Amino acid sequence: MCLALSRLSECGIMRNIKRSFMPLSRLLQASTCPAALSSSARRLVSGCASSPKVCIVGGGAAGFYTAQHLLKARSDMVVDIYERLPVPFGLVRFGVAPDHPEVKNVINTFTQTAQHERCSFFGNVGVGMDISVEELKNAYHAVVLSYGADGNRSMRVSGESLEGVFSARDFVGWYNGLPSNQELCPDLSCETAVVLGQGNVALDVARILLSPLDYLKKTDITEQALQSLKASRVNRVLIVGRRGPLQIACTIKEVREMINLPETKADMLPSDFEGIAEVLKGLPRPRKRLTELMLMTLKVNEGGQNTCKRWGFRFLRSPVEVLPDADGKKVAGIRLAVNKLEGSGEEARALPTGQTQDVECGLLISSIGYKSLPLDPTVPFDPRTFTVPNNMGRVLHTAGLYCSGWVKRGPTGVIATTMNDSFETARTLLKDAASGTLDLSVYKAGAQEITALLKTRGVRAVSFSEWEKINSEEVRRGEALGKPREKVLDVKEMLEVAWS
Amino acid sequence: MALRVCVRSLIFSTRVQLWRETLSSRTVIRPFSRHHELQSESSPGSKVLLHFVNQNGTKMSVMATEGESLLDIVINKNLQIDGFGACEGTLACSTCHLIFDESVYERLEPVADEELDMLDLAYGLTKMSRLGCQVIVAPWMNDMTVRVPLGVKDQRVPQEAKNKQ
């Protein structure tokens, strides 16, 4: 997942678009009442005792798309979304790159879902901390786990904890304003940064490190990150992958964005592409076009331009050891194993040749993938795939429990992948409800029961209209800076604004 | 082919540079074309009959106005196509993917690299695939049928999982 914002300085236009883009409300035939009523009053209006009640754990893309489909398919279904943070939208807010505002347009549809009369949002409620899955199962007919992939795959090499070594998740969270990553303070005083991994997140990180500030300052990147990037001396980013050009994990849009970065040139090694042009013909179209685009960078670069910033892929390299500086505190480089490929195509495996290569760098960001973490001992979890074992979204051996998004299929794919995957889970749930596998005949108290439990634990949820107060405040702060929004970075401050 | 891509990309990069000066890069080529509608109020464009076949095989026939995009039509006419147009016509997703008859496909305006980039991520990609947000209704399209890809199962997902580094 991975957008530009003076694009949105067409802001007037975009707002008009927003207003005219009301597909969901039309699809759902939403009534006009909800905005003015409190969440509990809405429930009295819409959620009669016999309504099927479903709750969703996690207010990101998977959660909202699952909710959207459930609400649309059954006019009696009540859907509640529980989110650990006071703010909704998960990685659409905290993962999608600040220069990708178009991708964030999905928030308009999510907002319409949240404002639907049969949908409620409960932010600031941590499932597994404030409330258990078992308690949710007691209160709802079905529980859908859509809590994403909160952990990182580790490089498992020595030196990983040296200063200047970060996971891409934390680095992305830092520039996107995720509260838990605001202490990161990366030192950007070095010239070379190495990113391990060649997925879209790796390219997001590389692009943010090399983008012109004039460009970034019009996005919703945090002011704090912008100031650090202003002082940055990073002028070269190497993006390292363990396999070859034909196995690269990123998508073509992200490579094209790197190529189109102003005052920046691609720094590739022609030797990495030997023999590649010959195999192009037999490749499927997406792989073929991506490879052709990379080959093109070799040709364009032959002329050699006088640009100060460079980026490049480095292939067939795996991390062996993070090398410390003289004081042993900070990263000074990375030792890479030189690999060769066994087999070909998508299936090719990287095998070490026994040779190594040291690359100097003052910033090392590992972007080798996310992983989901188990939520609760009562929920099945596959520790090998880091997913919840399921059949089309139906959690195995656990009646009433479903999953969607990354926790269901692993942390891959673009927003459309998560959308389709969430629709699939919703269809499975609806099918189970229709066939009686999911028993809807018993009364379930839904949010009423959970809200009472939360009260006894001193937990106060943030409603969607309270989030909208945070939203308005962020937009207001952004306006002063010429940005679409300036995010509130601290949970405590979010709550103060929400409840002000 | 390589040369063709090369030339096209160079052309595009010039375009991007132009955009950067005004809007920054790669904006929306054609976000919901409201301006078309506004124009059509004063001088109504031709009306064209179009047929959409959705994921369930249901055929929906609508009157569209010259200058609207196919995405505009799905949204404005409230056609029942799940998850259509997630990024609102900004070339940032592939959810308005439509499949055309060959005879129609060949008459469509040329496809830009950015559209192909998104199509490459689409479910059930065919040689006759386009993004609905980039296809603008013209009088010759009268009685045209477009299809929403059937397969919700993404061919790319297993491949992508294997790709994971």
UniProtKB/TrEMBL annotation, chain A:
It is an enzyme of class 1 (oxidoreductase). FAD binds at A62, E83, L91, V127, W406, G413, V414, I415. Keywords: Electron transport, FAD, Flavoprotein, Mitochondrion, NADP, Oxidoreductase, Transit peptide, Transport. NADP(+) binds at Q198, G199, N200, V201, R242, R243, E254, G413. Gene3D superfamilies: FAD/NAD(P)-binding domain, NAD(P)-binding Rossmann-like Domain. GO terms for molecular function: oxidoreductase activity. InterPro entries: FAD/NAD-bd_sf, Ferredox_Rdtase, Ferredox_Rdtase_adrenod. It catalyses: 2 reduced [adrenodoxin] + NADP(+) + H(+) = 2 oxidized [adrenodoxin] + NADPH. It is found in: Mitochondrion. Pathway: Steroid metabolism; cholesterol metabolism. Its cofactor is FAD. One of its GO terms (cellular component) is mitochondrion. The keyword NADP applies. Its EC number is 1.18.1.6. Pfam families: NAD_binding_8 (PF13450). It comes from the Eukaryota. Belongs to the ferredoxin--NADP reductase type 1 family. This is NADPH:adrenodoxin oxidoreductase, mitochondrial. The lineage of its organism: Eukaryota, Metazoa, Chordata, Craniata, Vertebrata.
UniProtKB/TrEMBL annotation, chain B:
It holds the Pfam family Fer2. Residues 46-152 form the 2Fe-2S ferredoxin-type domain. InterPro entries: 2Fe-2S_ferredoxin-like_sf, 2Fe-2S_ferredoxin-type, Adrenodoxin-like, Adrenodoxin_Fe-S_BS, Beta-grasp_dom_sf. PROSITE patterns: 2FE2S_FER_2 (PS51085), ADX (PS00814). Keywords: 2Fe-2S, Electron transport, Iron, Iron-sulfur, Metal-binding, Mitochondrion, Transport. It comes from the Eukaryota. One of its GO terms (molecular function) is metal ion binding. It is found in: Mitochondrion matrix. One of its GO terms (cellular component) is mitochondrial matrix. SUPFAM superfamilies: 2Fe-2S ferredoxin-like. Its cofactor is [2Fe-2S] cluster. GO terms for biological process: P450-containing electron transport chain. Belongs to the adrenodoxin/putidaredoxin family. This is 2Fe-2S ferredoxin-type domain-containing protein.
